[in-house]
Amino acid sequence: MTTLTPPIPQASARNGVGHLPALAFVATETAEAQASKDRLCERYGCVAPEKADVIVALGGDGFLLETLHAYLEREVPVYGMNRGSVGFLLNNYCEDGLQDRIARTQRVFLNPLRMVARTADGLMHQGLAFNEVSLLRETRQAAKLRISVDGVVRLPELTCDGALVSTPAGSTAYNLSAHGPILPLGADILALTPISAFRPRRWRGALLPHGARILFEALEAQKRPVSAVADFTEVRDVTCVEVFEDRTVRSTLLFDPELNLEERILKEQFAP
Questions:
Q1: pTM given for the model
Q2: What would the pLDDT profile of 28-82 be if each residue is shown by its tens digit?
Q3: Regarding the domain delimited by 2-110+250-268, which CATH topology (the fold level of the hierarchy) does it fall under?
Q4: Which end of the chain is more exposed for a tag (fewer CB within 10 A), N or C?
Q5: What is the set of active-site residues?
Q6: Domain 113-245: what homologous superfamily?
């Protein structure tokens, strides 16, 4: 993951006048977000996301992740404005000077984690995660996981509610609430964090190089079923899950200079 600071290049001209980027506006289903979308479309004009130079996402962090996934193949930059509840990955909402704001933004390139999961019926499932891949117990029984890194068993048995692998961008989300470390952008590391570990009690997780391949094996899977979740893609009854950073896939987030993601993550480490 790399943070760069060049401005958005002037996009192709629209309607033969000027060199303004073609904007698409997408919004979550709340009345507030939909009304904002209508006003912005009327004020700045809009095109379909498939034809946009920049996609403006109006919602919360969850909706922003959905937007990244939905238009992943286009590799179009996404500029989020907060019309939701959290908004850690979003810019402040303001309808004035939007094109000038976008021209001054800093870019953050995100490489997602790829999850490859095998289920009890022998089928393989895949998913991508910009925040984290998490394994979670499905019932009252604690999960038992064997964890290997790059083909070497590092933890023969972890009894827990689950475990997760987080990117730096996602390290302030579920990872932080599970008492995992906050990772600076550009650190090229991943956080492996247990969720409510029972045995071994003193294991608090690990920091791994971004190229590591982590394998989770569900022990006693029939008695202790486990699900795997990549952002919002869930796979039930998994027997083994491999997680690794996929550097063949990249998305671009845009941030106002005064509210860049790197500074936000740094501030989180000193939050009261």
A1: 0.88
A2: 999 999 999 999 999 999 999 999 999 999 999 999 999 999 999 999 999 999 9
A3: Rossmann fold (3.40.50)
A4: C
A5: 61
A6: Probable inorganic polyphosphate/atp-NAD kinase; domain 2 (2.60.200.30)
